[in-house]
Amino acid sequence: MSSFGFSTSQPELNSGWENTTDCILTTLKAELGSYAQRRDWGCDISKLIDKPQHQDLIVDFYFSIALALQPRLVRGTWYGEPRFHLENISIDASVPAKLTTILSGIYFPLGHLGSFERAERKDVAYSKPDLLA
Fold first, then answer.
1. d(CA 60, CA 54)
2. How many CB atoms lie within 10 A of CB 94?
3. Which of 6, 18, 119, 124 lies 20 to 30 Å from 85, alpha-carbon distance?
4. Full set of structural domains in the chain with CATH
C-alpha cells in the first residue's frame, strides 16, 4: 500500500514519490520546536538561510537537513522520513540570491510500513523560496 496525502501546492491527492517529496518539504519548512505536540519535529534551516556563508554554516545546514529527515523514535513518536534514505546533499549557489538544495538518496515506496525491499534511487531539488514559504 502506497502512501497518500494532500499536495502542498495544489488541492489534490498525491501518492508515491510525489507524496514523499511533499512530506520532505513540509519537514524542512517546519521550524524545529514550532509544533506544540511535536517539539522534536522540523528543521533548523530557516535560521541559517540568510546568514553569511562560511564553512561552519554549510556544515550546520547539511546537519540540520540530515537530522530532520533521519527516521527516529522520540518518546514513543516517529519522526523523520522513513521512505527516503538520504545519501547526499549538494548546494548550488551559482545564481545570485537563489540557493538550490539537491537531496539524493534511496526511495522506499513502502518504508512507512517498515518494508525496505523495493528501492529506487531518487533526487529532489528545493530552492530557497520553496524552503521558506
1. 10
2. 8
3. 6
4. 4-132 (3.10.450.40)
